[in-house]
Amino acid sequence: MLASASDIAISWLDVSIAACLLAINALVSVRLQLGMASKIAWSSVRMTIQLVILGLVLKQIFALATAAPVLGLAGVMTVIAGVSAVGRIDHRYPGIYLNAISSVWLSSWLVTLVTVLAIIRPDPWYSPPILIPLLGMVLGNSLTGISLGLDRFLSEMHNRRGELETSLALGATRWESCRGVFSVATRTAMVPILNTMAVAGIVSIPGMMTGQLLAGAPPIQAVKYQVMIMFVIAAAIAIGIVVALWLTYRNVTTADHQINWQVIRGKKKLKASIR
Fold first, then answer.
1. Are residues 62 and 127 in contact, defined by beta-carbon separation less than 8 angstroms?
2. For a pLDDT cut of 90, what percent of the chain falls above it?
3. CA distances from 98 to 38, 122, 261 (A)
């Protein structure tokens, strides 16, 4: 009988061997003078600490096996995802954090609940080993899509200010003026997941299928789970980015069909004004 990953335990010494491979990243950074060596080291340490803490928290939650702590952890994960979605956006406006959190929350929880209640149907429905990993995968992809979409939307508005103002001056409504920017931003946010779906099974074996195979699941069963999660993630990204862009559009335009340019600020200007 072939061994599966669930039958093979690895030690922290084994993990440290894998960590040594990061020396390749550091070497590339030094040789090309990228200035990323310290960031690589810090990111790896931070990731390890975060995952260890998550593992300890999940151990306790799995032991309790009640709805309240599971939903509490899910809520914390969602808020962090919303905040992270704004982290690398160059242009911002008042309320962007609340809008990002709301968009991530609505899209991720909606599709996750549909998946849990209508597709997987675990007993109980809040089963931590199923709900938390599933929500985590959806959140990770949703925040990336929302971040890309918001960044492109606000950057396009900034770069095409003259075009948008001309359109409004000629009698266009705020939606008619911003519709092209909205479409470009939505397309940008959807490209990564569509590219992933296009090469899945040919170029790469995606995360959930890999996990299932490592755990010893039959290959066809792993395929079913992976196809399901890809559809779920794509739906979450689509919902999240449309909600996020719509809220942003409503925040940076007025009922008089004008664009409130004063609320759109670059990250550097925003930090300066806070100081």
1. no
2. 52
3. 32, 32, 20
Q: Where are the domains of the chain?
A: 9-64, 66-274
Alpha helices in the chain (DSSP H): 12-20, 22-31, 37-64, 67-86, 96-114, 128-159, 161-169, 174-199, 207-214, 219-252, 267-274
Radius of gyration over alpha carbons of the chain, in Å?
22
Confidence of residue 63 (pLDDT cuts 50, 70, 90): confident
Helix axes 128-159, 174-199, angle to 10 degrees: 130
Give 103-143 pLDDT, tens digit per residue. Answer: 999 999 999 999 999 999 998 899 888 899 899 999 999 99
- Find how far residue 242's CA is from the centre of its chain: 14
CB 137, CB 207: distance < 8 Å = yes
CA 249 to chain CA centroid, Å, is 21
For the segment 133-158, the average pLDDT, to the nearest whole number, is 93
Residue at token pair 């340490």? 45
- Length of the chain, in residues: 275
pTM of the model: 0.82
Closest by Cα among 107, 133, 138, 113 to 51: 133
**pLDDT tens string 207-219:** 777 777 777 778 8
SS3 40: helix
pLDDT (average), residues 3-26:
76
> Residue 24 — φ and ψ, nearest 5°?
-65, -45
Shortest CA distance to 139 belongs to which of 239, 245, 249, 226? Answer: 239
Q: How far apart are CA 146 and CA 47, in angstroms?
A: 22
